[in-house]
Amino acid sequence: QSALTQPASVSGSPGQSITISCAGTSSDVGAFNLVSWYQQHPGKAPKLLIYEGSKRHSDLSNRFSGSKSGNTASLTISGLQAEDEADYYCCSYAGSQIYVFGTGTEVTVL
Amino acid sequence: EVQLVESGGGLVQPGESLRLSCEISEFTFSLYWMTWVRQAPGKGLEWVASINNDGSAKFFVDAVKGRFTVSRDNAKNSLYLQMNSLKTEDTAVYYCARFGVTNALDVWGQGTTLTVSS
């Protein structure tokens, strides 16, 4: 049940695209198509962005997209906006009804 | 509006017990698996426990096995986390969250804070 590995921080200028990686193993990210991504603003509860690897939740902007290759999932934010400045967490099913979160990435809009 | 509201957090000493509650509204509680997620101060999210829709199956992260238990009362639209033998490392904001048809946590409460300190 080790946490998935994410970069501690990623930054970009408004309008640019950034990608956050989420490295797991063949027992979690690589084994199932059940990676989700969450956005958390300071002092707030997390909010679901992406589920089942690449599906956008609710009315999420298509600026957010998810993908997976092997044991690594990724979240891409295109057309970066000031409101995207937040912490982002990936989460993967790890079998036996256990889920594991990533270490979290702080996104800064320069 | 679909809503989850946690309560029961507070300051306790190591070794003590506490029960957190999560009241839900505006969705059919009995249809959904539920989870507890925690976040230690300045740290990331940690999946703590899950319970299936009728309460017959429960799952825990290794760090709390044997100390925490999760339960629910579908008639009262409430989810609970009973925490025993608390340790300083259990200090965190505890969130309840709904495990939706999306196979993800699609609704979250605002969190309740537990501090374990002598």
Explain what this protein looks like in three dimensions.
- The complex is a heterodimer of chains A (110) and B (118).
- Chain A is mainly beta.
- Chain A is built from no helices and ten strands.
- In chain A, strands 1, 3, 4, 5, 8, 9 and 10 form a seven-stranded mixed beta sheet that branches.
- Chain B is globular and about 40 Å long.
- The mean pLDDT of chain B is 96.
- The interface between A and B is medium-sized, with 26 and 21 residues.
Brief descriptors of the model:
heterodimer, A: 110 residues, mainly beta, seven-stranded mixed β-sheet, three-stranded antiparallel β-sheet, globular, B: 118 residues, four-stranded antiparallel β-sheet, 53% strand
User: What average pLDDT do the residues of chain B reach?
Assistant: 96
The portion of residues assigned to helices of chain A is: under 10%
Shape verdict of chain A: globular
By DSSP (H or I, 4+ residues per run), the number of helices of chain B equals: 0
Number of helices of chain A: 0
Q: Estimate the strand proportion of chain B.
A: over 45%
Output the radius of gyration of chain A.
13 Å
Task: Indicate the topology.
The complex is a heterodimer of chains A (110) and B (118).
Chain A: E1 9-12, E2 18-23, E3 35-40, E4 47-51, E5 55-56, E6 64-69, E7 72-77, E8 86-93, E9 99-101, E10 105-109
Chain B: E1 3-7, E2 10-12, E3 18-25, E4 33-39, E5 45-51, E6 58-60, E7 68-73, E8 78-83, E9 92-99, E10 105-108, E11 112-116
Parallel strand pairs in B: 2-11
Antiparallel strand pairs in B: 1-3, 3-8, 4-5, 4-9, 5-6, 7-8, 9-10, 9-11
